[in-house]
Task: structure prediction
Amino acid sequence: MLEFLLRFFGRDTASSKKVAKERLRLVLVHDRAGVSPHLLESLKNDLIKVISEYLDIDTDGLEVSLTHENDAVALVANIPVLRVKRTFKSIQEPAFKV
Amino acid sequence: MGEVIVITSGKGGVGKTTTTANLGTGLASLGKKVVLVDTDIGLRNLDVVMGLENRIVYDLIDVVEGRCRLKQALIKDKRLENLYLLPANQTRDKTAVSRQQMIDLTSQLREEFEFVLIDCPAGIEMGFKNAIAGAEKALVVTTPEVAAVRDADRIIGLLEAAEMEPPRLIINRLRPEMVRKGDMMDIEDMLEILAIDLIGVVPEDQYIVISTNRGEPAILDKHSRAGQAYRNISRRLLGEEIPFINWEAGSFMSRIKKLMGLG
Ligand SMILES: Nc1ncnc2c1ncn2[C@@H]1O[C@H](COP(=O)(O)OP(=O)(O)OP(=O)(O)O)[C@@H](O)[C@H]1O
Ligand SMILES: [Mg+2]
Result:
């Protein structure tokens, strides 16, 4: 009953169109990543390339995935570090800040 | 050499056949020589929407299997001189035709016609792959619903992967009063999500049901709002710049009421 009254007075805050759009946005992140399995694979390879400049990593144990938490999608990468390089090829100075 | 345009959607029942019939009729009334190809083998519908179901002798499968010449299978429209239908077969299934056969068929048709419109079946399997095989352009039909837009997104990805021209979007069954209340996704929402160009918006319209009952596309009815939308899309297909009708702004009366503070 209360719910009815609230809706009646237009306090049902999220209009159903907003809900629809938000649900679509989230579901399409997964659909699109799923449709092109290459996406995560090629992202993974690029990550390995970049990170290997700084750290020795276990490329076999590396996992990259998209997760769904609350109302957000996150890119989660689990990258086992074998050792930190003593020296690295610094291409540009700001590499320190990365 | 004519253009081959496939009308597709992913999800079933969103208006592909209705759109094919109306745009074909629209282009033909603008003087173009048009053929409609029903590739929904086993579930043919385009013939009844066009009111031509009693004239079918041969069908698409008869043509590809060589039981008749292409010309013999083409059914002339009742109303327009330069409009033809190549019906689907009703007893076989989607595997009865191959991609190569579709490519051959469409290249034969494009010699003869300025526009070849292909009514695609729902789904992403064989029937879809056959329907797009010989087409260089695609129109993706969706309705303002989560499932339909999601499937449209999938289809757009598959069309991209098939290296076709970027498809254009038709939003069908828009209900302006629901959009105004915030209970239906609006045009901008869908364009933002799907990130493709819009070619037209067709409102929900009871004339569609009436005209399907009669077997006369709604575009021939000058009172039909959906017909008006389809007339505009037909012209846009010819490259004309036709401003979009602002369905979301409400009817003339509701705008007056709003101005007077009554609505
Ligand atoms: N703008 C509209 N207003 C009202 N009714 C509509 C509209 N567009 C389509 N319809 C109705 O929706 C139903 C489905 O339309 P249609 O057969 O064109 O869809 P389809 O995408 O070809 O379906 P299928 O996937 O089964 O081939 C029909 O009953 C049609 O009359
Ligand atoms: Mg259909």
Summary: Residues 35-85 of chain A form one domain. Chain A has a mean pLDDT of 76. Residues B 16-17, 40, 45, 119 surround magnesium ion (ligand 2) (CB under 6 Å). The CA atoms of residues 52 and 76 of chain A lie 18 Å apart.
